[in-house]
Amino acid sequence: MDLDGFINPEPVVQPENQPFWDATKEDRFLVKWCNVCERAHWYPRARCPFCFSDDTAFREASGEGTIYAFAPMRRTAAPYILAYVTLAEGPTMMTNIVNARPEELTTGQPVRVAFVPTSGEYKVPVFTPT
Amino acid sequence: MRRPGLGYIVGAYEHPLRDAPDRSVAQLHAEVAAGALADAGLTKDDVDGLFCGPDTPGTGPLSMADYMNLNLRHVDTTNTSGSSYLIHVAHACQAIAAGKCDVALITLAGRPRQEGKAKGSLKRADNPNQPDFEFEHPFGIQILGVYAMVAQRHAHLYGTTAEQMAWVKVAFSHHAQHNPNAKLRNVVTVEDVVNSPLVADPLHRLDCCVVTDGGGALVVTREEIAKSLDRPLVKVIGCGEAPYGQAGGYAEITDSGARRSGATAYAQANVTPADIRYASIYDSFTITAMVQLEDLGFCEKGEIGAFVSDGGLISGSGRLAVNTDGGGLCNNHPVNRGGMTKALEAVRQIRGEAHPAVQVPDCDLALANAIGGQLGVRHASSTIILERG
C-alpha cells in the first residue's frame, strides 16, 4: 500500500483556531486547554465543552500519543491511513498515520506527531510510530 | 397488556425502483407519498402535517408542499440525516397528540445513483462552518474510513472477526432472495464476503451497503382515524432519539446513541429487548448493525460476534429476525439514508405482510432503529417500537 500519493486537503481555518494553524507552519503542535477546569479537549473550541468557560488557551503539546483506531483506505485514488490517536494530554483526535505499513500497526501502539504539507499554506499534525 | 398508542402508522410504501434515471427527485417524493396514502386509504387532501428530511429539495418543506399542493397546518424538518424518518414518526405522534395535525406524511426520496454518489465520486456536502470540518476534512475523513475504525476497534476490544461481521451480510442476503425489488438478490456465503476486496480494513466490499435511488413514505395518524381505515392497526408505543458525539475527545467509538434511544423507547413502551419479535436495524455496514444490536440490549456489549454467527439474524432459524427485506446491505438504501426502509419493513412484519418466507409468525412487537450521521464521529440514533393494534 503506497501512501506517498496522498496530499492532505488544506484546512478551512476559522478565526478561533488561527493560532493552531499558524503553529503548524513551525511544526509546533498545540492542544486547547480550559484554564478553569484544567482539562484538554479535542477538536479545539473557543469555549470549554466540559465547564463551558470561554477562558481557554492553546498550549504546546507533548506530541506523544497512542493509536486508538486506524483504517487503511485502500481503494481511494491515493491510499492513506485514517486514524484516531489518543494524545498524552487526554483527548483522542482524528489524524493520519504516516511512514508505516498498516500490517505493522496495532491499537495502543505509541506514536509521535509529525507535520506534513497540505494542498494549502498550512501543515497538518499526523503521527508516526516511535 | 395493551399499551396506549402514541400514534398509528396507517400508510407505508417503498418505491420499487432502485435506479430511477427517468424521474425527478420531486416526482419520486410525490410517488412515494401517493403510494403511502393509497396504502392507508387516504388522499393527499387528508394530509395536514408534512415531515421532511434533508433529502427534500428546497427550503425545508416549502417546495414539496407546493409541488404536491398540500394544505398544511403543521411542518417539521428535523434533520438528523438517515435517522430523521424515525424521529419524524415520533414527532408526528407528538404533534398529533398536541392537536397540531391529524394526518402526518413523511417522505424520503432521491436518486444518488444518477448524481454521481454511487461510487463516492461526488464530494460530501459538508459545510466548512461546521466546527468539526476544520479538524477532520484535512485528514481525508470518509464514511467508509470511520466505520472501518469502529470495526477495527471492536475487533481489538472484543475479538470480533471478519467472519462474524460477514454473517450479517449473509443473513440479509438470505432474506433478500425473497424480495423481488431488492438491489442484490443473490445469496452469499461468509467466504464470499471475506474474499471480496478489502476496501478499508477490516471491511470488505460486501460489508458495505448498496446505493440506491427511490425512497419511501409513511402516514401517521390518530387512533380514531386509524380505526376507520381498512388496514391492520400498527401502533407506535415507544420512541427514543439520542445524539452521540465525541464528548470533547473522550467518547468510545464502539458505543452508539442506540443505548440511550433504545432505553428511552423501551421505557415508554414498557417492554424489554426479549419481548421484541422482529427488529429493523440500520446496516450501512455490517458493523453498524452489530453495534446497534449490542446497544439495544439484544446481547451483552462485545458479544455480538457470537450472536450474529451461524445465521443468528436469519428469520425463522436465527436468534432474532433482523432486516427481513434484505436491509441496506442487500435490498435498499435510498438516498444513502436508512431510517425510512427500517420503518417500512417493521410495519410489514406487524401487519403480517412481509414475504411468507421471512414473516415472523404472530409478530406483535417490532423495533426499528436507525443511525443518522456516522458511528465513530457524531450521529443521532432513533428507535421506535411498534405493536399490533
TrEMBL record, chain A:
SUPFAM superfamilies: Nucleic acid-binding proteins (SSF50249)
InterPro entries to which the protein is assigned, alphabetical: ChsH2_C, ChsH2_Znr, NA-bd_OB-fold, Thioester_dehydratase-like
Ranges of residues in domain ChsH2 rubredoxin-like zinc ribbon: 21-55
Residue ranges constituting the ChsH2 C-terminal OB-fold domain according to the UniProt record: 59-116
Any Pfam family the entry gives: OB_ChsH2_C
PANTHER family per the UniProt record, alphabetical: BLR3430 PROTEIN
Protein name: OB-fold domain-containing protein
Organism, as annotated: Acuticoccus mangrovi
From TrEMBL, chain B:
SUPFAM superfamilies per UniProt: Thiolase-like
Domain Thiolase C-terminal: 251-387
Any one GO molecular-function label of the UniProt entry: acetyl-CoA C-acyltransferase activity
Organism superkingdom: Bacteria
CDD domains in UniProt: SCP-x_thiolase (cd00829)
InterPro entries the record matches: Thiolase, Thiolase-like, Thiolase_C_2
Protein name: Thiolase domain-containing protein
